[in-house]
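Archive entry: two folds, one per protein. Generate the first.
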Amino acid sequence: MSASHGVTHVVLVRWAPTTPPNVRESIRATARSLATEIPGISRLVEGPSVSPENLEQGFDYALVIDFVDSHARDNYLPHPAHLPLARELGQHSESVVVFDV
């Protein structure tokens, strides 16, 4: 992929059953803050599924980030604002899927 093409970063989360709603909301707030803290994010959308198809296969939450290019995505991964989110998702989820297109 050329650096001039945007990248869409999709994260699907299946929360651990023991993760309380206030912790989930705190993680969501951290995710939303990335748009103002990390350069190269052109759009960020997050939340539970609103699809009537019921094809989520147990995933409860999605975070979708559009980056201006692959360099912006690559800089996001080790960014100090991203690392706490990745850590929290790892601690409070049963499963996380990441898919970039």
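Generate the second and append.
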Amino acid sequence: MENLNNCKPILSFHSTRTNKYKWLIDNSIDMISIHYPDGRYSYVSPSFTETLGYKSCELLYKFPGDFIHKDDLNTALKSYESLLLGQETVESTFRQQMKNGEYMWLEAKIKAIRDETGEILEILSFTRDISEKVKYETTLLQAKHELNNIISNQQGMVIQIIKEQFKYIYAIFTGELVHVIGWTPEEVVGKTPYEIFEKETADYLVNQYDLAWESQEKVTFEYTTSNGYYLLVKIKPIVENGEVIQLIGSCVDITPLKEAEQQLIQSEKLSVVGELSAGIAHEIRNPLTAIKGFLQIMKMEQDNKYFEIMESEINRIEFITNEFMVLSRPRTETRKKMKLCTVMEDVLFLVDTEAFKKRITIKQNIDEDVFIEGEEYQIKQVFLNIIKNAIESMSKEGVIHIDVTQQDEKVFIKISDQGCGIPPEKLTYLGKPFYTTKQKGNGLGLMICYKIIKKHCGSISVESKLNEGTTFTIELPKVHHTNE
């Protein structure tokens, strides 16, 4: 240990009482320094010099500011000014330079020793090395910041719920899913469910929170947002000393799973319909063939207007059974490249008479160079079904527009009518088995259309306005024409 007697003056106390504690000060683990009223060092303890690596004489008569980091100097000066203004004790945290040039974080408790008039005689400073503490706090702060970034950028959503005056309040509401469902954290944090959601929704959520809080068990439930997203929510209570202090929750978007579930249910329905249709069609077609044959014989033997009506109705029954058979009977498909305008001309030839009777004009806008690929009979069946529906929906004269556009690798066929339109609540059910908006319909026609287009790697979408009309948009893959 350095011989302090080599540096004069080592300790300059203004009172004999303070001198009594010189031995304690010299041997203290804490870094102790005494300063003149202007702030210069008048004494530094051995622990002070050992910690910072200086000799006593390298510090005596110098100002602490000469060793304090420039970014912390202003804070240290304000502490000294507080003493001059009469404050008895101040605390300050700063970085002080060591002998090797590095900086060390220090925490100082500084006290002014005054005479009877209040004049400062000297300043006493008790200083501790808090570098490890600052390092730990910095690491903790950085980890917290990184955790917040991870949470706020994770695909789901994380929530923290506290309870104040018997009310649940959102303390954390973050994650990418927050913005997806139409919220921002600022709109939710600090508010109760009743300040954010409609009463029915808020009641449901609060019941789930109550269940988790009272049972002290994890609760899992599903929640549908106002903009149509399905969320899976898991709420876990945090328990301390046998009491719940908060709820921590996570939410994930299960909309794709719900959609897949609905598709699976729809697929199962189609499978059942296919199985039923095979039996029904066979049971009907056998007697139907006999009836139709005898009716034709009777029609040849005598002329009766009722025969035509009966034959028309039997043909209708036969048409329905054929639609059933499409669902159940496997077909050998022959796919080929087709010019779309040619396919459409063949279909329009079949409906021209019906359209003419109702004074409906069909206008088409199809380029010659638009080609698609598929089973010709099935594609024609789709166009025929949708165009016939358009004609039937129009109770007065009007126009049906058929427009074809190409975008990227897709072909879009839009068939628009000026008919009665379809109510919004019924649009989502189109294409479902046995669902129809027509009085005499069976719902199989559109269902078969959806099935055919899906098999051709396409899709059907519908837009409609009541008393204005409906537009069916058929999307199919584009085929590039080559001269073969």
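Annotation attached to the second fold: Residues 1-17 have pLDDT under 50 and may be disordered. The first strand starts at residue 31 and ends at 35.
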